[in-house]
């Protein structure tokens, strides 16, 4: 089926607000390694990985074999009313990797659902509906997670089951504190946090939730140490800290397994999803045991942590640990940042290159430094025309997001940099 015909059918039955990339959207029909092929036979190097989800790449035998082995049992689903061995084994591994003392794990189907669960835990434990969140953040598309999303382009409703106060810190490039040194930037943001607590809340705040690197917000991040300083203030008030690791988890940042570890912080809870299943629908929360057990009502998850998703996720985690993909992300991420910064020296349309590991953002600007979403759109399309798929985001839609599978090779990296250079030249 041609893309044009499928697009017409899509528009007839799918909602208008369901975003599609490109003037002529494509369907991915097959894939292997880091390359995908569309329905019309064009092959691309994938540098967005299903929004950071295909973390290991495509058609990985160890993962496919684990899924097939579970399929061969005939049991695709049983629900959390029954014991699931792969679920328990995966929970044990995540609890150990988390570094959270006495950790327990609850599995969901997505990052949105994981963040909703974390909010429920925190508000129940603290008996408060007040939450602190960062400006420019994104945490999901459900009722409470839209409320804590500090990005108007992704916040569909002003209605909310919680009361949110917004804190500076996550988006440094356009921050009023941009010109400050790292130490002074952190101090200014901490002063802001304390003032927000004192002036916009009644003091008994449930939690702060933050992405160590803001994903949809354009791969933005504060200086290392900001969240350590935030945590010190939060502890004074007994406020819980939740790290949203949906995009930063599993070693993608290169230097650490979890993004928050760059700040020397052990959070009270972490949420995760995306790369864990390498394409399978799975997410979850790992939290201190007492926090996880604070829910007093009955609860289950019909599909969360099902036998198929946990079998595949367990194989994914084992693969990335055995092949030290975190080290590969660090090594190639450094080269990617270096190559893009060299490109920025040649083209003033690039205002900022930032990120860690294989999680890199390129912000496009106009002559006066203003956001330039048009240039980002050109690069998105020109890269595709040359065989490279990249992402786009940022508060103003002016950031190209690069997050290839963590199995990326040096040759593939150089290929991508060459294509990006040609695409930026057209912007």
Automatic annotation (TrEMBL):
| UniProt xrefs under InterPro entries | Aminotrans_3, PyrdxlP-dep_Trfase, PyrdxlP-dep_Trfase_major, PyrdxlP-dep_Trfase_small
Keywords, in A-Z order = Aminotransferase, Pyridoxal phosphate, Transferase
* Transmembrane domains' residue ranges: none
The reply to whether Hydrolase figures as a keyword in the UniProt entry is no
**Gene3D superfamilies for the chain:** Aspartate Aminotransferase, domain 1, Type I PLP-dependent aspartate aminotransferase-like (Major domain)
Q: What is its EC number?
A: 2.6.1.44
Q: Please, which domain of life does this record's source organism belong to? A: Bacteria
- Keyword Transferase belongs to the record: yes
Pfam family of this protein, just one?
Answer: Aminotran_3
* Sample GO molecular function, one term: transaminase activity
Q: Which cofactors does this protein require?
A: pyridoxal 5'-phosphate
* Summary of subunit composition and partner proteins: Homotetramer.
UniProt lists the family membership as follows:
Belongs to the class-III pyridoxal-phosphate-dependent aminotransferase family.
| Name of the protein in question | alanine--glyoxylate transaminase
